[in-house]
Design a protein that fits this description.
about 160 residues, alpha+beta, Glutaredoxin, 6 helices, 9 strands
């Protein structure tokens, strides 16, 4: 996992904007950082129970839902069409990005080469990145059922907005 204080690797990924969006958009990290800091939330699979809990918890956090001074991206190696259905079923209103080849997860050093017979899957991880593209908070786990403690994430976001 990349550590705090390091430069965040740039990327451009396809994704959906929200649960009610039918269009596929391209999201560039450096482009978004020109507007706001970014919280990257990597997760394993759409519809995995622990991932559903993770993204729903993130979506339900009141400091996130009322604060448009930070952009939150959910990133997994699932495809856009899975993201769209997952977002609709869970009523998620945050962009879900498709890192379909695992290259972005690999650049952040949060990639399982193999997980339960699936190749190149993102680990559960959270990064807070400031507008200078520097990682201000980093957390990752090898245990898919582990969930991040959102309080230090919130503190890291508050420190840079």
């Amino acid at each position: 996992m990349l550590s705090t204080g390091t430069q965040a690797p740039d990327f451009t990924l396809p994704g959906i904007e929200s649960s009610h969006d039918d269009e596929i958009h391209l999201y560039g990290l450096s482009e978004r950082l020109s507007e706001t800091p970014v919280l990257l939330n990597f997760y394993l699979f759409d519809f995995h129970p622990a991932c559903t809990d993770n993204l729903c918890d993130l979506h339900d956090l009141s400091w996130f839902t009322v604060d448009d001074s930070v952009t939150v991206f959910g990133v997994s190696t699932d495809r856009i069409f899975s993201h769209r259905e997952f977002g609709q079923q869970q009523h998620l209103d945050l962009p879900l990005l498709s890192d379909s080849d695992g290259s972005v997860a690999e650049s952040y050093d949060v990639l399982y080469q193999e997980f339960n017979d699936h190749k190149r899957i993102a680990k559960r991880a959270v990064f807070v990145i400031d507008t200078d593209q520097v990682i201000k908070y980093a957390w990752s786990t090898d245990e898919p059922s582990d969930q991040p403690d959102w309080e230090p994430v919130q503190e890291a976001v508050k420190a840079i907005v």
